Amino acid sequence: MDGFNLLLTACLGIGLSAACGFRVFVPMLILSVAANAGQITLASGFDWIGSTPALVTFAVATALEIGAYYIPWLDNLLDSMASPTAVVAGTVVTASVVTDVSPLMQWSMALIAGGGAAGAVQAATVLVRGTSTASTGGLANPLVSTAELGGSLFMSVLSIFLPILAVGLAIGAVGFVGYKIHSRRTASPDAEGLEQSVS
After folding, report:
1. What is the total count of domains within the chain?
2. How far is CA 151 from each of CA 42, 125, 154, rounded to the nearest angstrom?
3. Which domain holds residue 136?
4. Residue 167 and residue 165: Cα distance in Å, rounded?
5. Which of 51, 68, 127, 129 has the most CB atoms within 10 Å of its CB?
């Protein structure tokens, strides 16, 4: 495989893995649909993802996952359980689309890039949901769930057609969330110090 095609397949895997950080099964479903449509070629040993039973299973799992995130307080529990699951899903998704390379490179990319991307996005969503729960008592969490679902769908589809752009957006989104959280944490001590000096 030439360098450019390797870059494309790596970006495809990383983009889908990042989408796993929002929702575990949405990218798996999109990948299964794309494989069934002949849009992408799966790596050896991952043909099962493009099978009809897998497509049906991913569709049911996706529907259940989406619905569960709209149940108050269950969404926070799911977030704690979804973190390791998202990393595993991201690893599998990346490994399934990286073709014509050695198994060592395939699984190294899958574990480091795929699992890492899914973990980073999932960590950001946990922080956002935790902030929403703390500040609104969970009332705004359905909006967070809708945004996460939209992000997963958008990232999954974009990864299939424009993988390099998808990776760029994923990096930008995680960086932005990290910056906002860091800014709030660094601003809080300054605000507390100001209040103490005034009193």
Report:
1. 1
2. 24, 11, 5
3. 3-198
4. 5
5. 129
